[in-house]
Amino acid sequence: QVQLVESGGGLVQPGGSLRLSCAASGSIFSINFVGWFRQAPGKERELVARITSSGSTNYAGSVKGRFTISRDNAKNTMDLQMNSLKPEDTAVYYCYVEGYGWGQGTQVTVSS
What we know:
Helix content is about 0%, strand content about 50%. It is built from no helices and 11 strands. The strands form 2 sheets. Strands 2, 4, 5, 6, 9, 10 and 11 form a 7-stranded mixed sheet that branches. Strand 5 (about 45-50) and strand 6 form a beta hairpin.
């Protein structure tokens, strides 16, 4: 069973940056849909960003221009660079790989 392990979460001040990483124990080379979701307390899990095997990306409107998703098929990793963070970005962030499922989640807290 392929495992997904996220890292890089933490506490950051508004306007700061964080970089999340997701490492898969299996190959993601041929998998089209990989992405990041987040879930804030009392809210449903929502798609933040996704990237296809060809490199096409989609972002939620609330993060467009601030977040950047990338993938490295050779290393079986996926990253989410988050800049200009806002308090409303506070949530548990999950990576998702089609066919493999979800990571365990990493907490991102944006607060002064």
